[in-house]
Amino acid sequence: MDIVRLSIPYEFIRGLVRMSWREVRFGLDKELLDPWAPVELAIEQAAGLEQPSAALVDLASAEKDNPIMGPINKLADGDPPRSENDIRNRWLYLVLAWLYENRDAHQDPLQKVEEVYADFDYPEQIVKFVRYMPMDGPDLGSREANVKRLFERWKWYLDETARKLVASEK
User: Fold this and answer.
1) Residue 167, pLDDT score
2) Does the pLDDT value for residue 16 go beyond 70?
3) Crossing angle of helices 21-29 and 37-47, rounded to 10°
4) d(CA 114, CA 132)
5) Model-level pTM?
6) Which residue, 3, 38, 99, 104, is the most exposed by fewest CB within 10 angstroms?
């Protein structure tokens, strides 16, 4: 990933998915996650446990200038194995959800979608709302109508993916 750099806050992610430590590490490595998010997650997890692990306590008590990758790596290595593809797909969803939620902050949100499409190695599941890809369906007669359709497809992807993620976390 070379183009998209974000700092998605934990509060936003928390409202969408339960994040594993492997996903946290991926998000930090790819510069998609707010650097303070792992500490917030650790505080939340430690509060719910009678005997949190030393790595979780270290991370939960970290201050802004403390190095945190050591405890994150320990926690991630203790997570059940997950495929890189599964982790990437969850981050694809999170990045696109963040961009959609904040689309008014970007002069050209569909350009951001194109950047995500490239950064995530051209995932098939988002091709229907990548502006430069061949249109799926007829021309709607105006640029505005065609752009509106792309945003509708983006929203549909987010809704469907969220539904699937919620079902898989149960």
Assistant:
1) 75
2) yes
3) 170
4) 8
5) 0.92
6) 104
Contacts of 168 (CB under 8 A, 6+ apart): none
9's CB contacts (< 8 A; 6+ apart) are 34, 37
% of the chain beyond a pLDDT of 70? 98
| b/e per residue 39-48 (b: at least 16 CB within 10 A) | bbbbeebbee
Contact call for residues 158 and 96 (beta carbons, < 8 A)? yes
Calculate what percentage of the chain has a pLDDT beyond 90.
81
Domain locations in the chain? 10-78, 84-169
Residues 55-105 have pLDDT tens digits of 999 999 999 888 999 999 999 999 999 999 999 999 999 999 999 999 999
C-alpha torsion sign, points 72, 87, 154, 166: negative
Q: Structure tokens of 104?
A: 């008014």
The neighbour count for residue 150, using CB atoms within 10 Å, is: 18
Beta bridge partners of 8: 33
Burial state string for 91-112 with b = 16 or more CB within 10 A and e = fewer than 16 = bbbbbbbbbbeeeeeeeebbeb
